[in-house]
Design goal:
Distance between the termini: 19 Å
Shape: globular
Strand content: 25-35%
Order of helices and strands: EHEHEEEEEE
Radius of gyration: 14 Å
Number of helices: 2
């Protein structure tokens, strides 16, 4: 996950970004065998979605990955407790990073050298 130049400030999530974020929270696979995400965890994270904004975007030029932030532009740093929810969509892997119990980064990684400009529709998102 590489972050490029600073943005002018947080912006509202697009409808597609919000849809993808919600789908990852509802259906993303959690591969942490020691501390798996519970239904209560997912409900708590889903409650954050209405206040979540888009921060800086990835500077790679081939994906729509974004930091997730609050109105003040705060994105939690990698902490002691990081959860990663994984999913896949046609031609891409999706990852949602949750640091210190806060949504922090939504990543789309193209599987080929292709560029993917937008997040997939929620109907195209499947658990890994």
């Amino acid at each position: 996950m590489s972050i490029s130049s600073p943005s002018t400030g947080p912006r509202a999530l697009t409808p597609r970004e919000r849809e993808t974020l919600t789908a990852l929270l509802e259906r993303g696979s959690d591969n942490d065998r020691d501390f798996p995400a519970t239904a209560a965890d997912r409900a708590r994270w889903l409650a954050q979605v209405p206040q979540t904004l888009a921060g800086r975007s990835c500077g790679c030029g081939s994906c729509p990955s974004i930091e997730l932030t609050d109105a003040e532009g705060y994105t939690p740093a990698t902490g002691d407790r990081r959860v990663v929810l994984n999913a896949e969509a046609p031609g891409a892997l999706l990852m949602l990073f949750i640091d210190e119990d806060r949504l922090s980064y939504m990543e789309l990684a193209p599987l080929k050298d292709d560029s993917i400009a937008t997040f997939p529709a929620s109907t195209d998102i499947q658990p890994v």
